[in-house]
User: Fold these one by one.
Assistant:
Number 1:
Amino acid sequence: MKIHGLTSGAVRVKHSFLYPSPGRRRQLDLFTPGAFSDPLPIHCWAIEHDGVLRLVDTGETEAARNVPFARMEVTPEQELPAAMAEAGLALDEVSQVALTHAHGDHIDGLVHVQARALINETELDFLRSPIPRVMRRVLRQPLPPRFAPDPFVLDDGPFGAFPESRSLSDDGRIVAVATPGHTPGHLSVICIDDAGRHVMLAGDATDSLEQLHARRADAVGPDPKVHIATLETVLAHCTQHPTVYLPSHDPDSAARLAAGTTVQAERGDDRRDSALGLPAT
Protein backbone atom coordinates (compact mmCIF):
# COMPACT_ATOMS: atom_id res chain seq x y z
CA MET A 1 0.00 0.00 0.00
CA LYS A 2 1.17 3.50 -0.84
CA ILE A 3 -0.57 6.69 0.31
CA HIS A 4 0.13 9.99 -1.40
CA GLY A 5 -0.66 13.39 0.05
CA LEU A 6 -1.96 15.72 -2.67
CA THR A 7 -2.31 19.47 -2.18
CA SER A 8 -4.68 21.69 -4.18
CA GLY A 9 -3.81 25.15 -2.98
CA ALA A 10 -4.47 26.68 0.41
CA VAL A 11 -7.12 28.34 2.53
CA ARG A 12 -6.98 31.06 5.18
CA VAL A 13 -9.62 30.80 7.88
CA LYS A 14 -10.67 33.11 10.67
CA HIS A 15 -9.16 32.63 14.09
CA SER A 16 -12.72 32.18 15.34
CA PHE A 17 -13.03 29.22 12.96
CA LEU A 18 -10.05 27.47 14.55
CA TYR A 19 -10.69 28.59 18.14
CA PRO A 20 -14.43 29.24 18.49
CA SER A 21 -16.00 31.15 21.32
CA PRO A 22 -18.38 29.27 23.61
CA GLY A 23 -22.13 29.54 23.49
CA ARG A 24 -24.02 31.63 20.96
CA ARG A 25 -20.92 33.35 19.63
CA ARG A 26 -19.50 30.03 18.37
CA GLN A 27 -21.01 30.48 14.90
CA LEU A 28 -21.86 34.18 15.03
CA ASP A 29 -18.16 35.13 15.19
CA LEU A 30 -17.64 33.47 11.80
CA PHE A 31 -19.56 36.35 10.23
CA THR A 32 -18.10 39.27 12.20
CA PRO A 33 -14.74 40.99 11.52
CA GLY A 34 -11.72 39.06 12.70
CA ALA A 35 -8.15 38.01 11.99
CA PHE A 36 -7.33 35.24 9.52
CA SER A 37 -4.82 32.40 9.81
CA ASP A 38 -1.74 31.88 7.71
CA PRO A 39 -2.41 29.72 4.62
CA LEU A 40 -3.43 26.16 5.49
CA PRO A 41 -3.08 23.33 2.96
CA ILE A 42 -6.04 21.80 1.18
CA HIS A 43 -5.07 18.14 1.17
CA CYS A 44 -6.67 15.17 -0.48
CA TRP A 45 -5.22 11.68 -0.66
CA ALA A 46 -4.45 8.99 -3.23
CA ILE A 47 -4.19 5.34 -2.18
CA GLU A 48 -2.47 2.68 -4.31
CA HIS A 49 -3.40 -0.78 -3.09
CA ASP A 50 -3.70 -4.17 -4.79
CA GLY A 51 -3.54 -2.61 -8.23
CA VAL A 52 -6.37 -0.17 -7.49
CA LEU A 53 -6.03 3.62 -7.29
CA ARG A 54 -8.47 5.39 -5.00
CA LEU A 55 -8.92 8.99 -3.90
CA VAL A 56 -10.13 10.34 -0.58
CA ASP A 57 -11.59 13.76 -1.44
CA THR A 58 -10.66 15.75 -4.53
CA GLY A 59 -9.50 19.16 -3.32
CA GLU A 60 -10.51 22.62 -4.47
CA THR A 61 -10.53 24.53 -7.77
CA GLU A 62 -9.70 28.08 -8.82
CA ALA A 63 -13.43 28.78 -9.26
CA ALA A 64 -14.04 28.56 -5.50
CA ARG A 65 -15.59 31.68 -3.96
CA ASN A 66 -14.52 33.09 -0.63
CA VAL A 67 -16.91 33.06 2.32
CA PRO A 68 -16.86 35.39 5.35
CA PHE A 69 -14.72 32.92 7.34
CA ALA A 70 -12.52 31.37 4.62
CA ARG A 71 -10.39 32.74 1.79
CA MET A 72 -9.30 30.33 -0.92
CA GLU A 73 -5.89 30.53 -2.58
CA VAL A 74 -6.00 28.09 -5.48
CA THR A 75 -4.55 28.39 -8.98
CA PRO A 76 -5.32 26.13 -11.96
CA GLU A 77 -1.80 24.73 -11.65
CA GLN A 78 -2.64 23.49 -8.15
CA GLU A 79 -5.85 21.64 -8.96
CA LEU A 80 -6.21 17.86 -8.81
CA PRO A 81 -4.78 17.00 -12.28
CA ALA A 82 -1.52 18.79 -11.54
CA ALA A 83 -1.33 17.39 -8.01
CA MET A 84 -1.80 13.87 -9.35
CA ALA A 85 0.83 14.38 -12.05
CA GLU A 86 3.31 15.71 -9.51
CA ALA A 87 2.84 12.49 -7.52
CA GLY A 88 3.42 10.42 -10.68
CA LEU A 89 -0.19 9.25 -10.80
CA ALA A 90 -2.65 9.13 -13.69
CA LEU A 91 -6.04 10.67 -13.02
CA ASP A 92 -7.75 8.40 -15.55
CA GLU A 93 -6.62 5.35 -13.54
CA VAL A 94 -8.64 6.35 -10.46
CA SER A 95 -11.42 3.82 -9.96
CA GLN A 96 -13.07 5.10 -6.77
CA VAL A 97 -13.42 8.33 -4.80
CA ALA A 98 -14.50 8.40 -1.16
CA LEU A 99 -15.75 11.80 0.01
CA THR A 100 -15.31 12.64 3.69
CA HIS A 101 -18.06 15.28 3.50
CA ALA A 102 -19.68 17.66 1.04
CA HIS A 103 -17.85 20.96 1.53
CA GLY A 104 -16.40 22.56 -1.57
CA ASP A 105 -12.72 22.19 -0.73
CA HIS A 106 -13.26 18.43 -0.54
CA ILE A 107 -15.62 17.86 -3.49
CA ASP A 108 -15.06 20.60 -6.09
CA GLY A 109 -12.22 18.66 -7.71
CA LEU A 110 -14.77 16.04 -8.78
CA VAL A 111 -15.08 18.05 -12.01
CA HIS A 112 -11.78 16.43 -13.01
CA VAL A 113 -12.73 12.84 -12.13
CA GLN A 114 -14.67 10.27 -14.10
CA ALA A 115 -14.53 7.52 -11.47
CA ARG A 116 -17.40 6.52 -9.21
CA ALA A 117 -17.69 8.71 -6.11
CA LEU A 118 -19.06 7.50 -2.78
CA ILE A 119 -20.53 9.52 0.07
CA ASN A 120 -22.08 8.61 3.40
CA GLU A 121 -25.86 8.38 2.98
CA THR A 122 -26.27 10.46 6.16
CA GLU A 123 -24.18 13.25 4.63
CA LEU A 124 -26.17 13.23 1.42
CA ASP A 125 -29.44 13.42 3.35
CA PHE A 126 -28.10 16.38 5.33
CA LEU A 127 -26.91 18.06 2.14
CA ARG A 128 -30.47 17.93 0.75
CA SER A 129 -32.08 19.33 3.91
CA PRO A 130 -33.32 22.96 4.06
CA ILE A 131 -30.58 24.69 6.09
CA PRO A 132 -27.61 23.50 3.98
CA ARG A 133 -29.51 24.33 0.79
CA VAL A 134 -30.19 27.87 2.01
CA MET A 135 -26.62 28.38 3.18
CA ARG A 136 -25.24 27.29 -0.19
CA ARG A 137 -27.32 30.02 -1.82
CA VAL A 138 -26.47 32.69 0.74
CA LEU A 139 -22.73 31.95 0.65
CA ARG A 140 -22.72 31.36 -3.13
CA GLN A 141 -21.29 27.87 -2.72
CA PRO A 142 -22.95 25.70 -5.38
CA LEU A 143 -22.29 22.01 -5.68
CA PRO A 144 -19.88 21.15 -8.48
CA PRO A 145 -21.36 20.41 -11.92
CA ARG A 146 -22.77 16.89 -12.29
CA PHE A 147 -22.39 16.25 -8.56
CA ALA A 148 -23.96 12.80 -8.21
CA PRO A 149 -22.06 10.60 -5.75
CA ASP A 150 -23.45 7.20 -4.84
CA PRO A 151 -24.65 7.04 -1.21
CA PHE A 152 -23.61 4.13 0.93
CA VAL A 153 -24.31 3.02 4.48
CA LEU A 154 -21.72 2.35 7.17
CA ASP A 155 -23.20 -1.05 7.92
CA ASP A 156 -20.18 -3.32 8.51
CA GLY A 157 -20.33 -2.92 12.27
CA PRO A 158 -17.57 -1.70 14.62
CA PHE A 159 -13.98 -1.08 13.54
CA GLY A 160 -11.65 -0.50 16.45
CA ALA A 161 -13.26 2.17 18.62
CA PHE A 162 -15.63 3.27 15.86
CA PRO A 163 -19.13 1.81 16.14
CA GLU A 164 -19.96 2.28 12.43
CA SER A 165 -17.78 1.35 9.47
CA ARG A 166 -17.75 0.14 5.87
CA SER A 167 -14.90 -1.64 4.13
CA LEU A 168 -13.89 0.02 0.86
CA SER A 169 -11.44 -2.69 -0.22
CA ASP A 170 -11.94 -6.41 -0.58
CA ASP A 171 -9.27 -7.22 2.00
CA GLY A 172 -10.62 -4.85 4.65
CA ARG A 173 -7.46 -2.72 4.79
CA ILE A 174 -9.25 0.44 3.63
CA VAL A 175 -12.21 1.27 5.85
CA ALA A 176 -14.61 4.21 6.10
CA VAL A 177 -15.63 5.10 9.67
CA ALA A 178 -18.24 7.52 10.96
CA THR A 179 -16.75 10.73 12.39
CA PRO A 180 -19.74 13.09 12.72
CA GLY A 181 -19.30 16.60 14.05
CA HIS A 182 -17.99 18.98 11.40
CA THR A 183 -21.00 17.74 9.44
CA PRO A 184 -23.57 15.14 10.52
CA GLY A 185 -22.45 12.57 7.95
CA HIS A 186 -18.71 13.23 8.03
CA LEU A 187 -16.57 10.13 7.61
CA SER A 188 -12.87 9.37 7.76
CA VAL A 189 -10.96 6.68 5.89
CA ILE A 190 -8.52 4.43 7.75
CA CYS A 191 -5.87 2.53 5.81
CA ILE A 192 -3.94 -0.30 7.45
CA ASP A 193 -0.48 0.22 5.99
CA ASP A 194 2.15 -2.43 5.34
CA ALA A 195 3.64 -1.89 8.82
CA GLY A 196 0.25 -2.44 10.46
CA ARG A 197 -0.27 1.21 11.36
CA HIS A 198 -3.69 2.78 10.93
CA VAL A 199 -3.36 5.82 8.67
CA MET A 200 -6.43 7.95 9.32
CA LEU A 201 -7.36 10.27 6.46
CA ALA A 202 -9.47 12.45 8.69
CA GLY A 203 -10.95 15.09 6.39
CA ASP A 204 -12.21 17.86 8.66
CA ALA A 205 -12.79 15.69 11.72
CA THR A 206 -10.44 18.33 13.12
CA ASP A 207 -8.35 21.05 11.52
CA SER A 208 -5.23 19.90 13.33
CA LEU A 209 -3.78 17.31 15.67
CA GLU A 210 -3.76 19.98 18.38
CA GLN A 211 -7.55 20.32 18.11
CA LEU A 212 -7.93 16.57 18.50
CA HIS A 213 -5.91 16.53 21.72
CA ALA A 214 -7.75 19.61 22.98
CA ARG A 215 -11.07 17.85 22.32
CA ARG A 216 -12.36 21.13 20.90
CA ALA A 217 -15.47 21.21 18.73
CA ASP A 218 -15.19 23.47 15.70
CA ALA A 219 -17.29 26.51 14.85
CA VAL A 220 -19.04 24.91 11.88
CA GLY A 221 -20.64 21.71 13.13
CA PRO A 222 -24.31 21.86 14.17
CA ASP A 223 -23.85 20.03 17.49
CA PRO A 224 -20.63 20.53 19.52
CA LYS A 225 -21.49 17.62 21.82
CA VAL A 226 -21.58 15.21 18.88
CA HIS A 227 -18.25 16.56 17.65
CA ILE A 228 -16.55 16.18 21.03
CA ALA A 229 -17.88 12.61 21.34
CA THR A 230 -16.29 11.82 17.97
CA LEU A 231 -12.94 13.24 19.10
CA GLU A 232 -13.10 11.02 22.18
CA THR A 233 -13.72 8.04 19.90
CA VAL A 234 -10.76 8.95 17.68
CA LEU A 235 -8.48 9.23 20.70
CA ALA A 236 -9.78 5.91 22.04
CA HIS A 237 -8.97 4.30 18.69
CA CYS A 238 -5.46 5.75 18.85
CA THR A 239 -4.87 4.04 22.20
CA GLN A 240 -5.89 0.70 20.67
CA HIS A 241 -3.98 0.99 17.39
CA PRO A 242 -0.86 2.93 16.32
CA THR A 243 -2.55 5.65 14.26
CA VAL A 244 -1.11 8.26 11.90
CA TYR A 245 -3.68 11.06 12.08
CA LEU A 246 -3.97 13.23 8.97
CA PRO A 247 -6.50 16.09 8.92
CA SER A 248 -6.87 17.76 5.54
CA HIS A 249 -5.80 21.26 6.64
CA ASP A 250 -3.06 20.48 9.15
CA PRO A 251 0.26 21.93 7.90
CA ASP A 252 2.04 18.99 9.56
CA SER A 253 -0.01 16.21 7.96
CA ALA A 254 2.32 15.63 4.99
CA ALA A 255 5.37 15.37 7.24
CA ARG A 256 3.47 13.13 9.66
CA LEU A 257 2.58 10.79 6.78
CA ALA A 258 6.16 10.70 5.49
CA ALA A 259 7.61 9.98 8.93
CA GLY A 260 4.91 7.56 10.07
CA THR A 261 4.31 9.65 13.20
CA THR A 262 1.55 8.15 15.30
CA VAL A 263 -0.68 9.66 17.96
CA GLN A 264 -0.16 8.73 21.57
CA ALA A 265 -3.49 9.71 23.05
CA GLU A 266 -2.70 8.90 26.68
CA ARG A 267 0.27 11.29 26.76
CA GLY A 268 -1.47 13.95 24.68
CA ASP A 269 1.38 14.28 22.20
CA ASP A 270 2.96 12.60 19.17
CA ARG A 271 5.58 9.92 19.03
CA ARG A 272 7.66 8.36 16.29
CA ASP A 273 6.39 4.86 15.74
CA SER A 274 8.84 2.40 17.28
CA ALA A 275 8.65 0.25 14.16
CA LEU A 276 10.57 3.00 12.35
CA GLY A 277 13.38 2.91 14.89
CA LEU A 278 13.01 6.64 15.53
CA PRO A 279 13.29 8.33 18.94
CA ALA A 280 10.26 9.47 20.88
CA THR A 281 9.46 13.17 20.76
Note: Residues 2-274 form a domain with the Metallo-beta-lactamase; Chain A fold (CATH 3.60.15.10).
Number 2:
Amino acid sequence: MALKFQNPTTSTKRHTALVIDRTITQNRPDKNLMSHLSYKAGRNSSGKLTVRHKGGREKRHYRNIDFMRDKHNIPGKVSVIEYDPNRSANIALVVYKDGDKRYILSPLGLAVGDEVMSGDKATIKIGNALPLKNIPSAQFVHNIELSVGKGGVLVRSAGSSAQIQGIDKGYAQLKMPSGEIRLILDKCYATIGVLGNIDHKNEKLGKAGRKRHMGIKPTVRGTAMSGGKHPHGDGQGKGGRHGPGGPAKDRWGNRIGTRTRNNKLTNKYIIKRRSNVRKNKFKNYKTII
Protein backbone atom coordinates (compact mmCIF):
# COMPACT_ATOMS: atom_id res chain seq x y z
CA MET A 1 0.00 0.00 0.00
CA ALA A 2 1.40 3.39 -0.99
CA LEU A 3 0.44 6.85 -2.19
CA LYS A 4 0.80 7.56 -5.89
CA PHE A 5 1.87 11.07 -6.91
CA GLN A 6 1.57 12.18 -10.52
CA ASN A 7 3.84 14.42 -12.54
CA PRO A 8 2.70 18.05 -12.06
CA THR A 9 1.80 18.64 -15.71
CA THR A 10 -1.52 20.24 -14.72
CA SER A 11 -2.87 21.98 -11.63
CA THR A 12 -4.99 18.92 -10.93
CA LYS A 13 -2.16 16.41 -11.07
CA ARG A 14 0.09 18.65 -8.99
CA HIS A 15 -2.02 18.11 -5.87
CA THR A 16 -3.30 14.58 -6.46
CA ALA A 17 -2.30 11.75 -4.11
CA LEU A 18 -4.15 8.46 -4.54
CA VAL A 19 -3.83 5.21 -2.62
CA ILE A 20 -2.41 2.30 -4.61
CA ASP A 21 -2.95 -1.08 -2.95
CA ARG A 22 -1.40 -4.03 -4.75
CA THR A 23 -3.25 -6.54 -2.55
CA ILE A 24 -6.65 -5.59 -3.97
CA THR A 25 -7.82 -7.96 -6.69
CA GLN A 26 -9.46 -6.78 -9.89
CA ASN A 27 -12.13 -9.50 -9.82
CA ARG A 28 -15.78 -8.57 -9.90
CA PRO A 29 -17.52 -8.77 -6.49
CA ASP A 30 -19.66 -11.79 -5.63
CA LYS A 31 -23.19 -11.15 -6.95
CA ASN A 32 -24.76 -13.25 -4.20
CA LEU A 33 -23.31 -10.92 -1.57
CA MET A 34 -24.52 -7.68 -3.15
CA SER A 35 -27.82 -5.85 -2.87
CA HIS A 36 -29.45 -2.80 -4.45
CA LEU A 37 -28.50 0.55 -2.96
CA SER A 38 -31.10 3.27 -3.38
CA TYR A 39 -29.83 6.81 -3.88
CA LYS A 40 -31.97 9.94 -4.23
CA ALA A 41 -29.20 12.46 -5.00
CA GLY A 42 -30.42 14.84 -2.28
CA ARG A 43 -33.94 15.13 -3.71
CA ASN A 44 -37.28 13.57 -2.76
CA SER A 45 -39.82 11.90 -5.04
CA SER A 46 -41.12 15.30 -6.15
CA GLY A 47 -37.68 16.44 -7.24
CA LYS A 48 -37.43 18.95 -4.40
CA LEU A 49 -33.99 19.44 -2.87
CA THR A 50 -34.13 18.03 0.68
CA VAL A 51 -30.41 17.44 1.37
CA ARG A 52 -27.94 20.09 0.32
CA HIS A 53 -24.53 19.38 -1.19
CA LYS A 54 -25.52 15.98 -2.57
CA GLY A 55 -25.91 15.18 -6.28
CA GLY A 56 -25.55 12.41 -8.84
CA ARG A 57 -22.74 9.91 -8.47
CA GLU A 58 -21.36 6.75 -10.00
CA LYS A 59 -23.68 3.76 -9.66
CA ARG A 60 -22.75 1.28 -6.98
CA HIS A 61 -24.07 -1.83 -5.24
CA TYR A 62 -24.01 -2.46 -1.53
CA ARG A 63 -21.73 -5.26 -0.33
CA ASN A 64 -23.35 -7.22 2.50
CA ILE A 65 -20.71 -7.24 5.23
CA ASP A 66 -20.74 -9.81 8.02
CA PHE A 67 -20.48 -7.48 11.01
CA MET A 68 -21.92 -10.10 13.36
CA ARG A 69 -19.28 -12.77 12.69
CA ASP A 70 -21.77 -15.34 13.98
CA LYS A 71 -20.37 -18.34 12.07
CA HIS A 72 -18.68 -19.67 15.17
CA ASN A 73 -15.84 -22.18 15.33
CA ILE A 74 -15.85 -22.86 11.58
CA PRO A 75 -12.57 -21.94 9.84
CA GLY A 76 -12.61 -20.00 6.63
CA LYS A 77 -9.99 -18.99 4.08
CA VAL A 78 -9.55 -15.52 2.57
CA SER A 79 -9.99 -15.85 -1.20
CA VAL A 80 -9.79 -12.21 -2.34
CA ILE A 81 -9.38 -8.72 -0.91
CA GLU A 82 -11.60 -6.14 -2.60
CA TYR A 83 -12.30 -2.43 -2.73
CA ASP A 84 -15.64 -1.33 -1.32
CA PRO A 85 -17.05 1.97 -2.63
CA ASN A 86 -19.36 2.27 0.39
CA ARG A 87 -16.64 2.52 3.05
CA SER A 88 -13.05 3.63 3.55
CA ALA A 89 -11.75 0.21 4.62
CA ASN A 90 -11.17 -2.69 2.24
CA ILE A 91 -13.14 -5.93 2.52
CA ALA A 92 -12.11 -9.57 2.32
CA LEU A 93 -14.13 -12.46 0.90
CA VAL A 94 -13.98 -15.46 3.25
CA VAL A 95 -14.91 -18.95 2.03
CA TYR A 96 -15.79 -21.25 4.94
CA LYS A 97 -15.27 -25.02 5.00
CA ASP A 98 -18.99 -25.65 4.60
CA GLY A 99 -18.99 -23.61 1.36
CA ASP A 100 -20.55 -20.45 2.79
CA LYS A 101 -19.10 -17.13 1.58
CA ARG A 102 -19.11 -13.87 3.51
CA TYR A 103 -17.49 -10.46 3.33
CA ILE A 104 -15.60 -9.16 6.38
CA LEU A 105 -13.65 -5.98 7.02
CA SER A 106 -10.03 -6.49 6.00
CA PRO A 107 -7.51 -5.73 8.80
CA LEU A 108 -3.91 -4.71 8.22
CA GLY A 109 -1.74 -7.76 7.50
CA LEU A 110 -4.53 -10.04 6.29
CA ALA A 111 -3.57 -11.68 2.99
CA VAL A 112 -5.12 -14.02 0.46
CA GLY A 113 -4.89 -17.61 1.70
CA ASP A 114 -4.96 -16.74 5.41
CA GLU A 115 -7.33 -18.67 7.65
CA VAL A 116 -9.76 -16.82 9.92
CA MET A 117 -12.31 -17.98 12.45
CA SER A 118 -14.80 -16.52 14.91
CA GLY A 119 -15.98 -17.94 18.21
CA ASP A 120 -14.72 -18.58 21.71
CA LYS A 121 -12.37 -21.29 20.41
CA ALA A 122 -10.60 -18.98 17.98
CA THR A 123 -6.95 -18.09 18.59
CA ILE A 124 -5.51 -14.60 19.02
CA LYS A 125 -4.78 -13.94 15.36
CA ILE A 126 -5.41 -11.09 12.94
CA GLY A 127 -8.90 -11.36 11.47
CA ASN A 128 -10.30 -13.69 14.15
CA ALA A 129 -13.36 -12.58 16.13
CA LEU A 130 -13.65 -13.43 19.82
CA PRO A 131 -15.51 -12.26 22.92
CA LEU A 132 -13.68 -9.41 24.63
CA LYS A 133 -13.12 -11.52 27.73
CA ASN A 134 -10.99 -13.94 25.65
CA ILE A 135 -8.75 -11.21 24.26
CA PRO A 136 -5.67 -10.21 26.32
CA SER A 137 -5.03 -6.64 27.42
CA ALA A 138 -3.13 -4.20 25.17
CA GLN A 139 -4.49 -5.97 22.09
CA PHE A 140 -5.85 -3.81 19.24
CA VAL A 141 -9.34 -4.68 18.00
CA HIS A 142 -11.98 -3.36 15.58
CA ASN A 143 -15.62 -4.05 14.62
CA ILE A 144 -16.73 -4.02 18.25
CA GLU A 145 -20.22 -4.86 19.45
CA LEU A 146 -22.10 -2.64 21.88
CA SER A 147 -24.85 -5.20 22.53
CA VAL A 148 -24.34 -8.95 22.57
CA GLY A 149 -25.32 -10.54 19.27
CA LYS A 150 -26.20 -7.25 17.53
CA GLY A 151 -23.05 -7.06 15.37
CA GLY A 152 -20.10 -4.71 15.40
CA VAL A 153 -20.88 -1.00 15.30
CA LEU A 154 -17.71 0.61 16.66
CA VAL A 155 -14.31 1.16 14.97
CA ARG A 156 -15.05 0.22 11.36
CA SER A 157 -13.23 2.90 9.30
CA ALA A 158 -9.87 2.58 7.55
CA GLY A 159 -6.79 2.60 9.79
CA SER A 160 -8.78 2.69 13.03
CA SER A 161 -8.51 0.46 16.09
CA ALA A 162 -9.36 0.38 19.78
CA GLN A 163 -7.06 -0.92 22.51
CA ILE A 164 -8.18 -3.14 25.37
CA GLN A 165 -7.09 -1.64 28.69
CA GLY A 166 -8.33 -4.42 30.93
CA ILE A 167 -11.34 -6.49 32.01
CA ASP A 168 -13.08 -6.36 35.38
CA LYS A 169 -16.53 -7.16 36.79
CA GLY A 170 -17.97 -8.29 33.47
CA TYR A 171 -16.86 -5.23 31.53
CA ALA A 172 -13.90 -4.50 29.29
CA GLN A 173 -12.23 -1.10 29.23
CA LEU A 174 -11.51 0.03 25.68
CA LYS A 175 -9.59 3.08 24.56
CA MET A 176 -11.37 4.32 21.46
CA PRO A 177 -9.68 6.05 18.49
CA SER A 178 -10.90 9.41 19.84
CA GLY A 179 -9.08 8.83 23.14
CA GLU A 180 -12.30 8.08 25.02
CA ILE A 181 -12.16 5.18 27.46
CA ARG A 182 -15.46 3.38 27.88
CA LEU A 183 -16.88 0.14 29.26
CA ILE A 184 -18.32 -2.60 27.06
CA LEU A 185 -19.70 -5.96 28.15
CA ASP A 186 -16.98 -8.61 27.97
CA LYS A 187 -19.38 -10.99 26.17
CA CYS A 188 -19.47 -8.68 23.15
CA TYR A 189 -17.44 -9.75 20.12
CA ALA A 190 -14.54 -7.86 18.58
CA THR A 191 -12.11 -8.65 15.75
CA ILE A 192 -8.35 -8.77 16.27
CA GLY A 193 -6.16 -6.26 14.44
CA VAL A 194 -6.00 -2.75 13.04
CA LEU A 195 -8.14 -2.05 9.99
CA GLY A 196 -6.23 -1.75 6.72
CA ASN A 197 -6.02 0.98 4.08
CA ILE A 198 -4.25 3.20 6.61
CA ASP A 199 -3.20 5.72 3.95
CA HIS A 200 -6.81 6.64 3.25
CA LYS A 201 -6.50 9.75 5.45
CA ASN A 202 -3.53 10.98 3.38
CA GLU A 203 -5.36 10.71 0.07
CA LYS A 204 -5.94 13.94 -1.92
CA LEU A 205 -8.54 13.78 -4.65
CA GLY A 206 -6.93 16.65 -6.53
CA LYS A 207 -9.94 17.90 -8.47
CA ALA A 208 -13.59 18.76 -8.00
CA GLY A 209 -14.70 16.28 -10.65
CA ARG A 210 -13.54 13.31 -8.62
CA LYS A 211 -15.56 14.63 -5.70
CA ARG A 212 -18.64 14.98 -7.93
CA HIS A 213 -18.30 11.33 -8.97
CA MET A 214 -18.69 10.53 -5.27
CA GLY A 215 -21.97 12.47 -5.13
CA ILE A 216 -20.66 15.54 -3.27
CA LYS A 217 -21.55 18.98 -4.62
CA PRO A 218 -19.77 22.26 -3.81
CA THR A 219 -20.43 23.99 -0.50
CA VAL A 220 -20.75 27.79 -0.49
CA ARG A 221 -19.64 29.65 2.64
CA GLY A 222 -22.31 31.60 4.49
CA THR A 223 -20.11 34.73 4.58
CA ALA A 224 -20.03 34.70 0.76
CA MET A 225 -23.85 34.93 0.56
CA SER A 226 -26.17 37.88 0.90
CA GLY A 227 -27.89 38.61 4.18
CA GLY A 228 -31.22 37.33 2.91
CA LYS A 229 -29.80 33.87 2.19
CA HIS A 230 -27.68 33.27 5.27
CA PRO A 231 -27.25 34.82 8.75
CA HIS A 232 -23.50 35.17 8.09
CA GLY A 233 -24.08 37.15 4.90
CA ASP A 234 -23.57 40.86 4.17
CA GLY A 235 -20.90 42.97 5.77
CA GLN A 236 -17.52 44.22 4.62
CA GLY A 237 -14.80 41.75 3.70
CA LYS A 238 -14.92 38.02 4.08
CA GLY A 239 -13.38 37.35 7.48
CA GLY A 240 -15.48 36.33 10.46
CA ARG A 241 -19.25 36.31 10.81
CA HIS A 242 -21.36 39.34 9.84
CA GLY A 243 -24.97 40.37 9.96
CA PRO A 244 -26.55 39.72 13.36
CA GLY A 245 -23.23 38.51 14.80
CA GLY A 246 -23.14 36.19 17.78
CA PRO A 247 -22.48 32.44 17.57
CA ALA A 248 -22.23 30.50 14.31
CA LYS A 249 -25.57 29.61 12.72
CA ASP A 250 -26.78 27.49 9.85
CA ARG A 251 -28.76 28.75 6.88
CA TRP A 252 -31.99 28.74 8.88
CA GLY A 253 -30.60 30.57 11.93
CA ASN A 254 -30.08 27.54 14.20
CA ARG A 255 -26.92 27.42 16.29
CA ILE A 256 -24.28 24.96 15.13
CA GLY A 257 -21.28 23.43 16.85
CA THR A 258 -23.15 22.53 20.04
CA ARG A 259 -22.99 19.11 21.60
CA THR A 260 -25.91 16.86 20.65
CA ARG A 261 -25.26 13.88 22.94
CA ASN A 262 -27.94 13.72 25.63
CA ASN A 263 -28.03 10.16 26.94
CA LYS A 264 -27.59 10.15 30.69
CA LEU A 265 -28.24 6.41 30.87
CA THR A 266 -24.94 5.57 29.16
CA ASN A 267 -22.75 8.24 30.76
CA LYS A 268 -21.80 5.74 33.46
CA TYR A 269 -20.07 3.59 30.85
CA ILE A 270 -17.72 6.41 29.85
CA ILE A 271 -14.68 6.48 32.15
CA LYS A 272 -12.77 9.20 30.33
CA ARG A 273 -14.09 11.59 27.74
CA ARG A 274 -12.12 12.41 24.62
CA SER A 275 -9.55 15.17 25.06
CA ASN A 276 -11.44 17.99 23.28
CA VAL A 277 -14.37 17.80 25.71
CA ARG A 278 -14.38 20.08 28.72
CA LYS A 279 -12.94 18.20 31.68
CA ASN A 280 -15.36 19.40 34.32
CA LYS A 281 -18.53 18.54 32.43
CA PHE A 282 -18.52 14.86 33.35
CA LYS A 283 -16.46 14.84 36.54
CA ASN A 284 -19.48 14.11 38.75
CA TYR A 285 -20.57 10.99 36.84
CA LYS A 286 -19.66 7.77 38.63
CA THR A 287 -18.49 4.67 36.82
CA ILE A 288 -19.75 1.20 37.63
CA ILE A 289 -16.28 -0.13 38.46
Note: The longest strand covers residues 76-82.
